[in-house]
Automatic annotation (TrEMBL):
It is found in: Cell membrane. This is Mechanosensitive ion channel-like protein. The chain crosses the membrane at residues 20-39, 60-79, 85-105. Its main location: membrane. GO terms for molecular function: mechanosensitive monoatomic ion channel activity. It is a multi-pass membrane protein. It comes from Arenibacter echinorum.
């Protein structure tokens, strides 16, 4: 026991009156280990509850993230106290420094506050499909400063949280499970309008990724400059990969148009050239002439 006491009382670092002993290092490791164990238990309990009660996975993840950050703040405070640094004195003494740092890291703090808002407000959750700056991403992780998503090209996108909270963002997952989409096409003037509408609706029916047959609707929407303009509306649950669905439907439409001799016209433009002419100026009106 004496040997153990001497070992724990051994000075690792000694700077003036400030000393770090072996037992201080042991306390730090214990705080770190206990924190990790507590977080592991909380995470396991939360996600078991999520599976058992069919809770929303995004809400469960957000709650766990908030709890994790709070526990780590407490743990860091305990570690500072264990090495002899008074947290309250540290905060009071560094107030002016924190103001300067805050001004320099204003955008970072903005992202952090936005992350807290996202996690507590739960307006954005894991697996939500968002449209941000024209890019569609599926949210995979919401962090304190940034969130991570996967776009339709399977590329990981790191998104500052302030970009989500301050900009206009479309959340495709906030509505019903199925969403309405459309495919537009133009055909040559003189085409059979009823036949075109029927082909558009049949083309959607041939594709497996649509919902509710009764909600498929072909429309004649406009007399265009070079074409009769149509669109077909349909519902689908495959929101994230909808561009692939639309592409497949366009292929079917193109095949059916070819089979039925329906032409998709090229844009046309008529150019009219006005022949040049020479203006005859009377001699007495020409520059430099005298009367």
């Amino acid at each position: 026991m004496d040997a153990l006491s001497k070992l724990l009382d051994f000075n690792l670092i000694s700077i003036g009156d400030y000393k770090i002993k072996v037992y201080t290092l042991v306390i730090i490791l214990l705080i770190f280990l206990i924190t990790r164990i507590i977080l592991k238990v909380i995470k396991t309990a939360l996600f078991q509850r999520y599976k058992g009660l069919h809770m929303d996975k995004g809400n469960t993840y957000a709650l766990y993230q908030i709890i994790k950050y709070v526990i780590w703040v407490i743990a860091i405070g305990l570690i500072l106290e264990s090495v002899g640094i008074k947290v309250t004195i540290l905060i009071a003494g560094s107030a002016a420094l924190l103001v300067g740092v805050g001004l320099g890291l204003q955008q970072t703090f903005n992202d952090v506050i936005s992350g807290i808002i996202l996690l507590s407000e739960k307006s954005i959750k894991i697996n939500d499909i968002l449209e941000i700056d024209g890019d569609v991403v599926e949210i995979q992780e919401i962090g304190l400063r940034t969130s991570r998503g996967l776009n339709r090209s399977d590329i990981a996108i790191i998104i500052p949280n302030s970009l989500i909270t301050t900009n206009k963002v479309i959340n495709w997952s906030h509505q019903k499970k199925k969403t309405r989409f459309k495919v537009s096409v133009g055909v040559a003037y003189g085409s059979d309008v009823d036949l075109v509408v029927r082909i558009l609706e049949e083309s959607v029916l041939e594709h497996p990724d649509f919902d509710d047959t009764k909600m498929i609707e072909g429309r004649f929407i406009n007399f265009g400059n070079s074409s009769l303009d149509f669109e077909v509306l349909f519902f689908s649950e495959n929101v994230f990969r909808i561009e692939k669905v639309k592409s497949d439907i366009r292929k079917i439409i193109n095949r059916k148009f070819s089979e039925n001799k329906i032409v998709i016209p090229f844009p046309q433009m008529d150019l009219h050239f006005k022949s040049g002419h020479t203006e005859i100026i009377p001699k007495n009106e020409q520059p430099g002439s005298r009367t």
